[in-house]
Design a protein that fits this description.
The complex is a heterotrimer of chains A (261), B (293) and C (350). By secondary structure, chain A is an alpha/beta fold. Chain A contains nine helices and ten strands. A six-stranded mixed β-sheet of chain A has the order 6-7-8-3-9-10, with helices on both faces. A four-stranded antiparallel β-sheet of chain A has the order 2-1-4-5, covered by helices on one side. In chain A, a hairpin with a 2-residue loop joins strand 4 and strand 5. Classes of the chains: A alpha/beta (261), B mainly alpha (293), C mainly alpha (350).
Amino acid sequence: MTAILRAEQVSKAFGGVQALGGCSVDVEEGSVTALIGPNGSGKTTLFNVITGYERLDAGEVYVGAKKITNAPPQRVFALGVGRTFQLTRIFPRLTVMENMLVATQHTGRRVRNPLARAGGPADRHRAMELLEFTGIERHAGALAETLSYGQRKLLELAYVLVADPAVVLLDEPAGGVNPSLIQHIAARIRELNAAGKTFLIVEHNMDFVMDLCGHIAVLDYGTVVATGPPAIIREDPRVLDAYLGIAEEDLAEEDDDAAAH
Amino acid sequence: MARQIYQAIVDGILGGGVYALMAVGLTLIFGVLDIINIAQGILVVVGAYLSYALSVHLHVDLFLGLLVTVPAMFVIGVVIHLAFIRPLRGRERTSMSLLACYAVAIIAEGVLYWIFGPGYVTLKASYINSSVRVFGFFLPYIYLYGFALAVALVVLLYGLLYRTKFGRSVRATMQDQTAARLIGINVNRVAALTFGIGVAVTAAGGMVYGATSGGFNPNSGYDLISRLLAIIILGGLGSIGGALAAAVFMITLESVVDIWSPNWAILVFYAALVIVLTFRPVGLFGRQAVRAQ
Amino acid sequence: MSELKGAAPPGLRSEAAGPAAPRERPRVSGKLLRAAGIAMVAAALAVYPLVITNGLATTIAVDGVIFISAAAAWNIFSGYSGYISLGHAVFFGSGAYTVAIGARDWHLTGDAVFALLPLAAVVGAVIAVPCGLVALRVRRHTFVVITIALFFIFQLMAFNLSFTAGSIGIIAPILNWAPATYNDPFYYIALAIAAGTTALAWLIRGSRFGLQLRAIRDDEDRARGLGVRAMRVKLSAFVISAFITALVGGLWFYFIGEALPQFAFDPIFDLSVALMAFLGGLGTVAGPVLGALIIEPAQQYLTTTITNDYLSEILLGALFLVVILLLPRGVIPTGSELISKWTARRENRR
């Protein structure tokens, strides 16, 4: 199994804060890999560095055999790596369909007539397919800013898929979303994975991760402290240590919930 | 020639101090409210005219008159903010605030023309035309006093920002409005007061400008705002230290170029601006773009 | 990928049926209304000078139509991209001076002067390239200030360069047309330009180019990340905008008969076109047209009837403030929202 996405000894500091230090992650082709870790462990920074939204200080990033270290976001995107953001980034004043069409801009090598109607029939058909796939096709004509939080997450997922990326990086896809929608998203990810897409997912929702992902990498203070399948990671003392604080909070929350009802 | 240049440099530094004061007010407003107060130029002229009115009609000394004009401009600033900036909502808020300030500037210019007419006036005082000779350089008293005033006020501003609770609120709001709200800062109040302070410094700047410019009229606002804008951009939007440095630098540069070509001296502002921005789009001391727009 | 189809997620089904319907922009009755409106306005504009022959009224009309083009051109760049330019007077004045200098130095008179209009437009476009390359690399706030700086630079040059004749200005060659219908050819040329500009704005809005521009407005970094060539797109819009603005600047010069630095490069021009676009609705096609037709005649009326120059300036500023405070999103978006609410209410009653 080859690593379709590889980060090697990546380091990134923000002023005095070392967000990533000697961080190495291998994402196997065809896998659904999770990237977990306490807040501030560098997960989003790693995403940013991989996809070109931040420049790294040291280390290399590879897509297949190609080195994409510090490549700008559009080049990373063109090489087949799509990503979503923790705070969903959509184009609020464009319609849902138009949001999808923006992502079609790079597909096609020829110089196209700029005054041609935005989105030919092929592009629109594909956009509609993806909107139906994620389930928000009814809103195609609505302005994106009118969508609810969950719908925006689905839109972001949909338009990232337009370019048919081989690797999809999802930043907290289940964050702040109701349980039935989480299941829906997980199901969609499984379908896409079955069709050959590789996923790297940052998540805090442990149930979601354990259920969906075949491989987990644990980040703490900017380096990978453990990797392996869910069953192993669950028992790993280093992971428990990193998450100990979170686990206690979870327990406290459950007690509060129980007391309130 | 060398002597001329040194004199020009001295003049520039002294004059730069005063521009620094006005520029700091402008960049402060930007830092807290995220808007560029285009009216700052004409408001300086308003300050100058206020000093003029006090001096000519009530025979109040220029510096003493500041005790009246500074609070007056503060109030004017707060009113402008509450009436025309605060009510603006929606996605285009920053653009519309800009246009609103522009509109206020036009109204202010019209009012000044109406009250004072188009003739050039200047502020007079006994100490304006005399100077002291230091190391063979002429240092006009008014420039010295003006520079001292500017230094005093900037120090006061720094004191306000870094040693008072209010100043802490201002700096917090400058960094992150949402976070500031979350820790209980009344961002609206901070915004209004900051706008007032930013405008209040134009009173002091206006007085010295009026005394040293060699004549001003309502149309002078354009010259001023174009310089001030170049200064705060060069220094980096929102950076107070940057505004200071840029003001002194630019005015000194202009002063030196003025020796050869008075007509084109102002061009150095724009040239410097374009050159710096080509290599460093955020200005000399500006922060990297963090905001969405 | 085409085999992968998912059912609508359970949590979303109710939401999809509810708020989505009235929120969608009205397509059916809105289109009819819009087409009718356009037809009426176009017809009125076409016959205006034939019906109303009063000299002052037609002069104001020529100004108004010139500003339709100016506001629409401004909107093509600033409205769609979100980069507010307060320096478009640079192009307007450059166009004016191009025609002025060309007529003077090449000794053109009469109808031949109109041949300089395309040259004026090209000059505007050429100037826009270096200006845009510098100005479009910075954030939106700084961009505004750079455009203002550019404006002052050009005004300064107009006052001080020898070939612009400084504050004396340049007089247009005398046009020996009959006074009664003097304004008409200017009006129709301006109207043709306005019609072309509006059509172009509409074309751009529905096009790939326009989509990229509007994506840049909403989230430039994200758009870049998806492959949009931001600088190229922004610069193109900027140059197109400059081309049209310079074109009408040249026409304006010949119409009013002289080029003076403070009028060819007038800060009020910048504020006016911005305000017209805002009033009508930033980023819409009809907005600048409506805005120009409302504001320019009002402005002209104020300056001609109120002899006290300064009072008219105050009222102008006050008018701008009123527009900004009361109609923040502009007439067209507010209007279409009202219309969609009205039609939704009618549908709910059935």
